[in-house]
Automatic annotation (TrEMBL):
Gene3D superfamilies according to UniProt: 1.10.1760.20
Protein name: ECF transporter S component
TM stretches of this protein: 7-27, 33-53, 60-79, 85-107, 119-144, 164-195
Pfam families: ECF_trnsprt
Record GO terms (molecular function): transmembrane transporter activity
Species the sequence originates in: Periweissella fabalis
Keyword line: Membrane, Transmembrane, Transmembrane helix
Amino acid sequence: MKNIRQLILTAIFMAIILVQVLIPFLGYIPLGAVIVGASVTIIQFTVALGTIFLGLRSGLILGLFWGLIRIWQAFTTPFSVGSLIFMNPFTAIGASVLVAVVVNLVVRPTTTATNVRVWQLGLAGALAALVNTAIVTLFTWIGFTFFHIDWHQFINLGQSQHFLGWFLSIVVGFNGIFEIIAGIIIVPIIAIPLLKVKQRLYK
């Protein structure tokens, strides 16, 4: 019975991720830099919340699911730097799966609404954003530096060496800051009621 309940709840979180991907503003908040696909991503917080509520195994499933959707989007949307980046499975899947791993280190599966600390949940949200941004940035840099990906063949933004610095400054300096702030706010607000539900479900 417990395994069936866990499976159903995991499927619900997967459905939420799918809805966030498909419906604008529920999963990605665009920041105006449409050409490079710059937007504040909040789907990592769904993965984080699923990990807090259901544990690491379900969190890894949610991260994998989101990563596979990222790859699907990359190959089915018109070419942009954003879609090109997530054609790399290490970028798409690695970032989303590591969100669950890091969150699980901060908020253990035994955490309940009575013993949780708000700062733990805020830290989990901040780390979810930081890990997602850091891994995407790292593999973007690796792809550019070691595999000589020529970005300006896909979009008309001039020489690629100038573009990389511009792109990374947007992702790290702009998106990253907003996502960390969003994580600190969103995760505690939603996680505390979820943990109260968890206490009732898993008595």
